[in-house]
Amino acid sequence: MGNDRDNGDNISTRLTYFLVGAGIGAVLALLFAPKSGEELRNDIADATRKGIDRSKEAAAQLGAKANEVYDTTRAKATELYDTARETAGEYYEATRERAADIYDTATTKAGEVVSKTRDAAARQAGSIQAAVEAGKQAYVEEKRKTELSGRTEAAPTYTPEKAM
Q1: Which residue from 6, 39, 107, 143 could staple onto 35, CB 3.0 to 4.6 Å apart?
Q2: CA distances from 95 to 99, 108, 161 (A)
Q3: Is 26 among the domain residues?
Q4: Which tens digits make up the pLDDT trace of 18-33?
Q5: Is pTM beyond 0.85 here?
Q6: CA of residue 42 relative to chain centroid, distance
């Protein structure tokens, strides 16, 4: 890129030196040439036309070089944009896939935990239900014994251990 700029500066420098040299040469040629007024005017007109033609040619070359630099820069910018867009798309896709994997793993683990919790609760529910039923049965028996014996206050049905 720096090279292109140097070439552009080189062309404009050449054009400037050329125009200055052509102008000096034309003036010197007119001053030292013994010609009539009409011939001198024709020479000035010819020199002016040649200078204009050369200026147009140099401007066309400079314009062509500017277009070339513009096209090269545009192509590089487009290439960089496409590369960046492609890379961003790849990172997006990889991140999306990784997030989906993590989500699937988390969902699976959560399902396993819920399943294990339900199984444990079901096992415990059976034990708790059996304990509640045993408690009800013991209450009914104790109440029946109390009603048969005629006692109104509850007394332990087990034999108290004697303190040693």
Answers
A1: 39
A2: 6, 20, 71
A3: yes
A4: 888 888 887 777 777 6
A5: no
A6: 68
